[in-house]
Amino acid sequence: MYTRVYKASRRLKNGVRNDGDHTNPTLPEEIIESILVLLPLPSIARFRSVCKHWRAVLSSALCSTRRTQICNGYPQLLLHNLFNNTLFCFCFSARKWKIISLPPSSLPVDSFKGPTGGLTLLENSKSTTILVCSPFMQNIFELPPMLSISYMAAKFIVKGDEKKPYKVVAVGCNQTRTANCIEIYDFSESSWRILGFIPGKIFSSQDLIYCNGLFFCKTSEPKGVEIYSMQDMRFISFVPLPLYFYSKSILVACTSSVFMVEDVREKRNITKDIIVWQLVQADSKPSFWKEIARMPSWLLDDFNKTSNVDLIRAWGWLNCVGAGDNIFLRRGSGSRNVLVYNLQEGDWNWLPQCSSGDGENWFHMSAFVPGYNAEGTRSFLH
C-alpha cells in the first residue's frame, strides 16, 4: 500500500494526473464527499486538480454548502508582516499559527480588507488599485480602475445571489473630495458602476462597516451612527451613541450583527474601561445600543501592557476586527498580542503569540471565516 501511495504521489509531482475513470467505482459518492469536505482548504485547492471525479464533487452545490457550514464555526485570524510580506494565520480548529505563502502581486501589499468566503482584498495605501486574492487557492486578480473614486475610505467583498456570488463594494471620495461615492464591481460584467453617494465625511474604514446590505457610518456631528441602505439608496435611520459615551470607539460586524468597542478614557488619556456594545435593531422600535460585555480590570491592565504606554496616550491605538462569534482586540497597530472576546460564551482569552522570528515588526490584523465556494471563486479568479 505504501508503495502505491508513493508511486501515485511521485506521478502527481511529475505532472502525471489520474483520470476520473480510475477512481474506485465501488466507493459511494456520499463517502467521497464526506471525506473531501472535511479536508483543510489548502488540500481541497490541490485536490481539485487530481481528477475529474474529485473536481466535480468539490464543485457541487451540496459540497460547497457543507463546507461553508463547517467553516462558519472556525474563524481565522490573519497577521500580515508588512516588512517581509508574510501572512500568519491562526486556525482555531488546530489552535496554532500557520504561515500562508502569498501569490505574487503587481503592487506592494499594505493590508487585507473586507474578507469573506475565503476571498480577501489586498490594499496598497498609495494606490486605488484593488486586488482580489484567494490565499488558499493561490490566485490573485487585479480589478480595473474605478469610475469616480480617487481617495479610498473603505472597501468590502459582499455576498450576492447564486448567479453572482460575490461583489466588490468601494467607498471613497472623488478627485475634488466633494462627495463620498459608492461603486460596485460586478464580475459577471467585468465592470464598475456607481451605486450612489453618501453625504458627510468618512475618515477611515473604522468609521464605516458593511453588514446585511447596510452601511453603518459613524458621525461626529451629531454623535451617532447613520444607517444607509444599498437597496433603497438612502439613509434609513440614525442611532445616537450611549448617553455617557465620550471616548474612542470602533465599529465591528460579526454574526450578522453590528457591535461597537468603546475605549473609555480618563483625563490623563489612560484607558479606564473597554466596553462591548451591540446594536439592537427592531422593525417597530428605534434601534439602540446595549452593553453586553466589559473587560475585567485585571485583564485590562495586562491588555494595556502589551503596547507602549506613551503611544497609547498619544494615539489611543485600539485595533478590533470581527469574525464568526469572536471579536479580536489588540493594543497597538503592530502588536502580536491578540485578545479574543467570544460572543456566545461571553469570555475573554488570549491567543498564543505569533512567533514570526523577526522581532517586533509591524503587523496588520484582519479576520475572516474561510469559505469554499467553487463557482464564486471560479467566477472571480479563473
From TrEMBL:
This is F-box domain-containing protein. It comes from Taxus chinensis (Chinese yew). Residues 21-70 form the F-box domain. CDD domains: F-box_AtFBW1-like. SUPFAM superfamilies: F-box domain, Kelch motif. InterPro entries: F-box-like_dom_sf, F-box_dom, Kelch-typ_b-propeller, KIB1-4_b-propeller, SCF_F-box_component.
